[in-house]
Structures are given as structure tokens and as C-alpha cells.
Amino acid sequence: MVTYVNPLVLAAKTTASSADNPTWDQAMKGPFAEEYWRAAEVEVETLERIKAWTVVEREDGMNVLPGTWAFKLKRYPDGKVKKFKARFCARGDRQKEGIDFTETYAPVAQWTTVRMMLILECLLGLKSKQGDISCAFLHAELGPTERIYVEMPRGFKQYDGKGRPKVLSLLRFLYGLRNSPRAFWQYLTKKLEACGLRQSELDPCLFIGAHVIVVTYVDDVLFWSNDEKHIYDLGTKLREANVDLEEESDAAGFLGVDLVRMPGGRIHMKQPGLIKRIIAALGFNESETASKKTPAERKPLIKDEEGEMAQESFSYASVVGMLLYLAGHTRPDLCYSVSQAARFMFAPKRSHEVALKRIGRYLVGTADKGIIMDPKNATSLHIDAYPDADFAGLYGYESTTDPVCVRSRTGYIIAVSNCPVVVYSSLQTETALSTMQAEIYAMAQCCKALFPLIEMVKELSGAAGLPLGGPPQMKITLHEDNSGALILAKTIPPEFTPRSKFYALKTIWFREQIAILGIEVIKVDTKLQWGDICTKMPPVVIFEFLRKLIMGW
After folding, report:
1. How many CB atoms are closer than 10 A to CB 102?
2. Other Cβ atoms within 10 Å of 170 Cβ, number
3. Which end of the chain, N or C, is less surrounded by CB atoms within 10 Å?
4. pLDDT < 70 regions, the chain
5. Rounded Cα–Cα distance for residues 500 and 513 (Å)
6. What phi and psi, each to the nearest 5 degrees, are found at residue 413?
7. Is residue 245 within 8 Å of 253, Cβ to Cβ?
């Protein structure tokens, strides 16, 4: 149980200057008051032009939501003023469930899907384009039975004959409403389906057409096709359907991830901008900071309840949040070290800050690195899963009075054509009594991600024109370095080994699927076990060797 929260953790900082994101009073009383007022006028004119609302008189019983202005001064990289932006938003936090909304869930694309499409792009030479939908949420209209009322924008209020302010009866969804993302997702789904695309059952943000594959992430859209003409034709159809799609260049970046095309058809996925923000947040100067060869020490990071209090000025939670985004997208080499640090996000000690700074020093020396997507074999795909476990890795380091000290760690990497697609590292939720049991738990966790991925690979490969359909055309291999776990995985259910009776139920389901799907389970040398990098910090030589296999550098 957390009994102490460092106040520095609650003082999360942002790199953006507050002067560039002023409140209404700050904007209208500041040096750029005229520019912000004009931006607000443009916003209101735009919303009225697209008929986002009607102005009505307030009635008793109306649940009228407050409105708010969000201002932003956009700058060029050199700091010069680019434009002044104003957006009128509704206070969604004041909505009442069952009155103003019922459902809020809106899916976003899985990064597994994006990585798979990048692999197919490398293998088949697909053309890619990126698009952005302007004022995305405003595209979705309220249904005939939906009623949402919002106060008129500050500075533009109107009054009835009794001097009471009128209100807005929304016809379209505004930014800030809790159900706006869902409404827009439903709107975009209908538009894409009307253009002849089919929504995938495996990823609701994946749409497959006869010539184009589309992946959506809120208002960001990625297109792939073997001919750019098909992408342009689809873009034209969407615009004719009143989707305000702005075409950008080739998919050179997506949600902060740079996609750099390299010779030989390879793609380098990296996040140098985020890494620089992390380094700056930790207070490092890149040119003056000594780098580290690994992101963590060999021994595990523990609670250190009696240790020195945290003392750094940076926000531990904020840095960990950025590192989680980095590790989950382009830096599998950080998954173990960041997973360790994330355990102590709400009660960090000095030793945890030191661990974070070590990760930062490692990033200083590898700031321009990421995953190099270099798939092998252009005629078919092969899937390799590398589950691993570190049995009771905290025992002897963590306090023996803490049950966590005997927990094992699960880690796995699933690669498609030698490119990492799924990476995972976490303490197991149950206590394993042997190395074999810990490895079996890791294998079961890995299979939960592997089996859906197999179906995704089949669907995308077929849509992109790569012939397969399962073994033997598509080889699927599960690599295990524990002999006991290997024997049990190959044992046909419901049989089991004598020592595994008490957890047989946890193994039967994936052993059945291994047999049904024709997955080959083989023994792998520990030195070639990719998952090892997710469960512990190996020696420098082994760490760099595995990093080369997994990430290409």
C-alpha cells in the first residue's frame, strides 16, 4: 500500500509555455489581444457557417453545459509566431450520464496494426500517404433524439427580452464533449464503408478495400496501396462525402513517431523529439552528459522503503509517462527498465530517481535510434514468439516480508519476419513455485497476444496481396529456453506432467491452440532468447547482441 506520495510527483510540468496557452483573461489583456480576438471571431464564424448549433432561449429544466475557450499560439521551430488559434469547447465534465450521453467508448488503431502495415510496405513496396481530418469532431451530427445545450461563447453572448442569456442547442458535436470521440468514430466508419471499405473485426480502426488499406487514429488517417492513384481516388470520394480531409505527404510520421525510409526498403521508426524532451526534463545537457551502455543496472530496482527521499525537481510521473510511450512504440530495449521504474510512479525514492536518470543517460547516447524494420523473405511471412520469465527475480533484493519479493517477471517479444511487433514486460500476478511454472505463465501470457496476431497477419497479408493462409505457407514458431516448459507445451491436452497438475487449467487452452494452429515449439539457446531483454538486464555484451537482433543496431 502507498503510504507516502512525494509532492514533486504531483507538480507535473509541461514543456509548453503557459504564455502560448493563455486563458480568456490572459489572452484579451495580453500583448496579442487583437490577434486572439480575431481568432475567436473566426472560430465562431466557422461554427455558425457549418450550422453547429441554433440559438434558443433558456428554459427551466435544461441541463446547460458551460463553455470554455482554448487558445494557442503556434510557433515555428525557431520560435517565430506561426498563427493564433482559438477553439470553443464544451465542458464535458459537466455532462450527466443518461441525459447528455449514454456511450463514450471510441477505439483507436492498435500499434500492432500499424507495425504490420509497415512490414508489408517494406516487403511489397506499398505506397503510403497520410491525411488529417480538420475539425474532426464537428463532422458528426447529433441524432434526432439527442439534446445538448451549451452556454454561448464568452464575448458573443446574446440575451432574451428578460435579460437572460440565451443558450446553444447543438446540432453537431463540439470538442470537449465526452461522447464526441465516439460520435466521430461512428461518422468516419460510415463514410469509409460508403466508399467501399470493410471494417476489420480484429481492429475496429482498420478498413480494408479492394485496392486501399486504411488505418485511423481519431483524426489521423494512414493509407496504403500498391498504386498512389487508388489512394487519391479514395481521398476524392471522402471529400465528396463532406469529409474535410487534408492530404499530407508520405507517411513520414504518425503520432510523434518518425518513419524514415532507408535504402533497401527498410523503415526506421524512431522518436528523437520525445527523447530530447525526456533528456531535457531530467535536466541533462546532451553535449555534457556522459552516456551509459545499458538503461539499468544488473540488479533489479526495489521499493527501497527505508531509502533516501526523492529530491530531484523533475516530475517522476511525467518522465515515466513519456518513457512508457517511448518504450511501447520504438524502443523495446527500454521495456524492462521502464517497467521497473513505473512500479514506483506514486511514491518514488532517491534510488528510483537515480534509475530514471540512468535511463536518460542511456538515451543520450542513443537519441537518434529506434526500430529498423527490415523484414526478411518477400514471398511469405513468418511469426516468431519469444516468451521468457525471470523466476523470483526480486528475491534476495526486496524485503522478505513483502509478497512481491517472490513474484516472477514475464517478458516476451513477438516478431513478424524478424521485425518486433509486440513487446511486453511485467511482474506476474501470481506466485510461481518453480522456474517451469513461471515460464509456463509467461508462455500463456504470450499466447494471448500471439493468437489474435496470427489472424491479423492473415487478414492484412491477404488484403495486401501476399499469399498465405496458415501453415505451411506461414510458419509460426514459439521459442522456449526452458526444457520443462517445452515438454509441457508439446504435450497434447488433457495430458500433463506430474508436477504440473495443479496449474493444468492454465495450460490446456493454449496447448490446444498450439496443436490446432500448427505452431512449432522449439528449444532456443538462452543467448538467442529475445525475451531475455524484457525480463532482466543482461551483461553489456549480451544486451547489445540482443538489441542488434531485435532493433537492427
Report:
1. 10
2. 21
3. N
4. 1-18, 77-78, 249-251, 377-380, 467-473, 494
5. 19
6. -130, 130
7. no
